[in-house]
C-alpha cells in the first residue's frame, strides 16, 4: 500500500509531495529488496594489476625459460635412453650420473634397472678422450650449463668445464714454459692434492691477497699456483657430487637388493672404463638424395641416424656455432607431429658461384630442421577404390621449413626464397606424365656469412590462408627463418 494512503487511514500526517519521488517504486516493508553493500576497492589495486599481468618482455622471458626447460628435459631423456641401449656418447654418461641427485628430473622417466647400470666416473670419461673428442664434449657440457637453472647441477657442469679445459691444455704440445710448469707439478699436487674444498677456498683467498699486496714475491709462481688451485677446486666439487651420487644409488638399491647395495657401497660406485658400445652405436652413412615425394615417404622407415641429423655426419663448411646448435636442439626437441615426417631433400644450388663477400667472411651452409606434411587425398577416384581400412598412398600436402641464421651479419635484411622451375617450365604448366607430379626447387637466399641452400619440393599451388594451425607462415625472428605452407586442395565436381 502507498505510504501516503496508509498514513491517511492511520490518521497520520500525509507526507508532502516533495518528500517522495512519484516515479520511484512503492515501498513495501514486508518484501523489501536491498542490494549488498559494495566493498571498497583496495588502495593498491594498480599494484595488484601489475602483479597479475606480465609485460611483453616478461612474457618473452617466461616463454624462453619454459622452452629451455623442455629442451633440457628432452636432452636428459635422450641421454638416459642411449645409456640403456649401450650407444651412449661421453656427454650421456655425465648426464646419466647426475640424474640420481637431480631434483629437476622427471621421475616418470626412471626405470628400476637404471640404478644397476654402472657408468664411468666423470674424470674417467675425460681421461679416455682425445683432443677432438674433448672439444666436442666441451661444447655439449656448455649446452647443458646454459640450459640448467638448478644451482647444484650448474656447479656440476661448471666443474666439468674447468676439468675439460685443463685436460685439453695438457694434451697440447708444450714449449719450454710448459715444461718448466710440468717440473713443479709434483710439488703443486703435494700441496693441493690432500686439501678439502673448504681448505682450497681458504687458500685461494690467501693467494689472491698475496698477489694484490705490495710484497716482493714470485708472481709467476703464485699465479700458476692459483690456476692449479682452481682445477683442484673443480676436482673437489666433483668428488663431493660423486659421493652424493654413490649414496643416492646405494639408498635406491637398498630397497631392491641389500646385498648389491652393500657391494656397491664398498666400491667407489663407478665403472673403471667406458662400456663397449653396441652395434646400434655405429654411425650409418648419410642417405642419398631422392625425389621430394620418395624422400618424404621413406624417411620414417629408414635406418639412418636420428631424424634430421644424417646430413651432419660430415662437418664440411656447415654451421656448427653454439648459437646454431641451441636453435637446432630446441627445434628438434619439438619433435614431429601427427602427419609430419622429416624432410631432407637438399639439392645443389644451380649456377651457384663464389659469393663476393667470400674473401671477407668464411662462407658456411646454414643448418635446418624441416618437416613435410603427409596425408590422404579423398578425391573421387580414391573414394571409389579405397576406404579407411585400406587407405590410398599418402601424398605431400605441404612443408614446414625452419632454417637457422643466428650469425647473420646484416640483421636488418631478412633471408628470402624463390621458386626455380627447370627446363623453361612456367607456373601452372606441367611436364609430368600421368599420375605423377611436377617438382621444383625452392632456394633460400641470405647474406653473409651464409651460402644459399635449395630443396626439391612438389610444385603445386600454395594455400595462403591461415585458418588452421598449420596454415601459411613466413617470418624471420630470433635467427630462424620459418616458411610453413600447405597446398590447395582440389575438389572434383560431378
TrEMBL record:
Bias kind Low complexity: ranges: 279-303
One GO CC term, this protein: cytoplasm
Residue span of region Disordered: 1-47, 274-310
GO terms under biological process: mRNA cis splicing, via spliceosome
Domain named Splicing factor cactin central: residues: 55-241
SMART domains membership: CactinC_cactus
The protein, known as: Splicing factor Cactin
InterPro entries, per database record: Cactin_C, Cactin_central
Family under the similarity heading: Belongs to the CACTIN family.
Pfam families, alphabetized: Cactin_mid (PF10312), CactinC_cactus (PF09732)
Domain Splicing factor Cactin C-terminal: from-to ranges: 357-494
Amino acid at each position: 500500500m502507498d505510504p501516503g494512503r496508509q498514513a491517511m487511514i492511520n490518521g497520520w500526517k500525509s507526507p508532502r509531495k516533495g518528500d517522495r519521488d512519484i516515479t520511484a517504486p512503492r515501498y513495501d516493508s514486508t518484501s523489501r529488496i536491498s542490494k549488498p553493500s559494495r566493498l571498497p576497492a583496495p588502495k593498491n589495486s594498480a599494484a595488484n594489476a601489475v602483479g597479475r599481468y606480465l609485460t611483453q618482455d616478461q612474457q618473452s622471458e617466461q616463454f624462453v625459460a619454459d622452452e629451455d626447460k623442455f629442451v633440457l628435459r628432452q636432452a636428459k631423456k635422450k641421454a638416459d635412453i642411449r645409456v640403456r641401449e649401450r650407444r651412449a656418447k661421453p656427454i650421456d654418461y655425465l648426464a646419466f650420473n647426475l640424474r640420481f641427485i637431480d631434483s629437476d628430473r622427471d621421475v616418470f622417466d626412471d626405470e628400476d634397472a637404471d640404478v644397476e647400470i654402472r657408468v664411468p666416473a666423470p674424470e674417467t670419461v675425460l681421461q679416455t678422450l682425445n683432443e677432438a673428442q674433448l672439444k666436442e664434449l666441451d661444447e655439449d657440457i656448455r649446452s647443458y650449463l646454459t640450459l640448467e637453472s638448478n644451482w647444484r647441477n650448474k656447479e656440476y657442469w661448471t666443474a666439468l668445464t674447468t676439468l675439460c679445459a685443463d685436460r685439453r691444455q695438457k694434451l697440447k704440445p708444450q714449449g719450454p714454459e710448459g715444461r718448466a710448469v710440468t717440473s713443479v707439478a709434483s710439488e703443486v699436487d703435494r700441496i693441493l692434492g690432500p686439501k678439502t674444498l673448504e681448505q682450497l677456498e681458504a687458500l685461494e683467498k690467501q693467494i689472491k691477497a698475496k698477489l694484490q699486496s705490495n710484497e716482493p714475491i714470485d708472481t709467476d709462481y703464485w699465479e700458476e699456483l692459483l690456476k692449479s688451485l682452481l682445477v683442484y677446486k673443480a676436482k673437489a666439487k666433483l668428488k663431493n657430487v660423486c659421493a652424493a651420487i654413490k649414496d643416492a644409488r646405494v639408498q635406491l638399491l637398498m630397497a631392491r637388493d641389500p646385498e648389491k647395495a652393500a657391494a656397491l657401497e664398498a666400491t667407489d660406485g663407478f665403472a673403471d672404463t667406458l662400456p663397449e658400445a653396441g652395434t646400434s652405436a655405429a654411425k650409418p652413412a648419410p642417405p642419398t638424395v631422392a625425389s621430394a615425394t620418395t624422400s618424404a615417404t621413406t624417411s620414417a622407415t629408414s635406418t639412418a641416424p636420428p631424424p634430421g641429423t644424417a646430413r651432419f655426419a660430415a662437418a664440411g663448411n656447415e654451421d656448427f656455432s653454439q648459437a646454431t646448435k641451441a636453435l637446432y636442439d630446441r627445434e628438434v626437441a619439438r619433435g614431429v607431429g601427427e602427419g609430419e615426417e622429416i624432410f631432407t631433400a637438399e639439392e645443389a644450388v644451380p649456377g651457384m658461384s663464389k659469393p663476393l663477400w667470400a674473401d671477407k667472411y668464411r662462407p658456411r651452409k646454414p643448418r635446418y630442421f624441416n618437416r613435410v606434411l603427409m596425408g590422404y587425398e579423398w578425391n573421387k577416384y580414391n573414394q571409389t577404390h579405397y576406404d579407411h581400412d585400406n587407405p590410398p598412398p599418402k601424398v605431400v600436402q605441404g612443408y614446414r621449413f625452419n632454417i637457422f641464421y643466428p650469425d647473420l651479419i646484416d640483421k636488418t635484411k631478412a633471408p628470402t626464397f624463390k621458386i626455380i622451375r627447370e627446363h623453361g617450365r612456367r607456373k601452372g604448366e606441367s611436364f609430368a606424365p600421368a599420375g605423377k607430379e611436377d617438382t621444383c626447387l625452392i632456394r633460400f637466399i641470405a647474406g653473409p656469412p651464409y651460402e644459399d641452400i635449395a630443396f626439391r619440393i612438389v610444385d603445386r599451388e600454395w594455400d595462403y590462408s591461415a585458418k588452421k594451425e598449420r596454415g601459411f607462415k613466413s617470418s624471420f625472428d630470433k635467427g630462424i627463418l620459418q616458411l610453413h605452407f600447405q597446398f590447395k586442395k582440389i575438389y572434383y565436381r560431378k
